[in-house]
């Protein structure tokens, strides 16, 4: 059976049951479990150090009222970065290349930040729709533009994550197919293509981590705006 270029993004099924939920939950089995020992292992120490440094970094611009989101943002970051990195392994499925899944992450969290802003400081939250000092004739236009930009935010979050990961996977597949095709005909070109693919894979490792961080960072900025 010949697979299409985009078949790698289809959710896998087993006996008619979609395995997307398993693909999302399975990575958590890989994390080391906390222990009561005084001296932890290297993997647990590295994990705790990463969580501590990330939490400090992401909460740095937030006020005290938003610190209650620390656990949620940290778990989201770990989940996204793990799914993104595991998706680069051969014969694996990347759930975060699915736009509905990313929108399922983005829309509820964005909506929660908006609701918090309208509940805690409605005047300031609504004031973001109209910049101070706006000329009177431009007030209706600016309110419409700012409202549209507000509702576009969750779609931008989901589409950005999906597009960056999907583009990287497609490039890796194209280069790997070209390498296999050229290896019997023009092996010097095949070696060069393979080197480019290796460099691209390293770049995708960075992209997987950066996109997860950007997703959570933008959510934290929306939270800061509404708290």
Automatic annotation (TrEMBL):
Keywords: ATP synthesis, CF(0), Hydrogen ion transport, Ion transport, Membrane, Mitochondrion, Mitochondrion inner membrane, Transmembrane, Transmembrane helix, Transport. SUPFAM superfamilies: F1F0 ATP synthase subunit A. One of its GO terms (cellular component) is mitochondrial inner membrane. One of its GO terms (molecular function) is proton-transporting ATP synthase activity, rotational mechanism. CDD domains: ATP-synt_Fo_a_6. It comes from the Eukaryota. Its main location: mitochondrion. It is found in: Mitochondrion inner membrane. It catalyses: H(+)(in) = H(+)(out). InterPro entries: ATP_synth_F0_asu, ATP_synth_F0_asu_AS, ATP_synth_F0_asu_bact/mt, F0_ATP_A_sf. It is a multi-pass membrane protein. The chain crosses the membrane at residues 12-31, 69-89, 101-118, 138-156, 163-183, 189-222. NCBIfam families: ATP_synt_6_or_A (TIGR01131). Belongs to the ATPase A chain family. Component of the ATP synthase complex composed at least of ATP5F1A/subunit alpha, ATP5F1B/subunit beta, ATP5MC1/subunit c (homooctomer), MT-ATP6/subunit a, MT-ATP8/subunit 8, ATP5ME/subunit e, ATP5MF/subunit f, ATP5MG/subunit g, ATP5MK/subunit k, ATP5MJ/subunit j, ATP5F1C/subunit gamma, ATP5F1D/subunit delta, ATP5F1E/subunit epsilon, ATP5PF/subunit F6, ATP5PB/subunit b, ATP5PD/subunit d, ATP5PO/subunit OSCP. This is ATP synthase subunit a. It comes from Chionodraco rastrospinosus. The gene is ATP6.
């Amino acid at each position: 059976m010949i697979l299409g270029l985009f078949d790698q993004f289809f959710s896998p099924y087993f006996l008619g049951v979609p395995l997307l939920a398993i693909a999302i939950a399975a990575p958590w089995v890989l994390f080391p479990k906390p222990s009561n020992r005084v001296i932890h292992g290297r993997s647990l120490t590295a994990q705790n150090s990463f969580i501590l440094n990330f939490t400090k970094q992401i909460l740095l611009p937030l006020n005290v009222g938003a610190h209650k989101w620390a656990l949620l943002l940290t778990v989201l970051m770990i989940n996204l970065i793990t799914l993104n990195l595991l998706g680069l392994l051969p014969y694996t499925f990347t759930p975060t290349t699915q736009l509905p899944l990313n929108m399922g992450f983005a829309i509820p969290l964005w909506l929660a930040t908006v609701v918090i802003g309208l509940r805690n400081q409605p005047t300031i939250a609504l004031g973001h729709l109209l910049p101070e000092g706006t000329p009177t004739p431009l007030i209706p236009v600016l309110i419409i533009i700012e409202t549209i930009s507000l509702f576009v935010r969750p779609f931008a979050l989901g589409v950005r994550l999906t597009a960056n990961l999907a583009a990287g996977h497609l490039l890796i597949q194209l280069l790997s197919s070209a390498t296999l095709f050229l290896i019997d005909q023009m092996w010097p070109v095949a070696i060069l293509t393979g080197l480019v693919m290796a460099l691209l894979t390293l770049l995708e490792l960075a992209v997987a981590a950066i996109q997860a961080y950007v997703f959570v960072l933008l959510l934290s900025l929306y939270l800061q705006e509404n708290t």
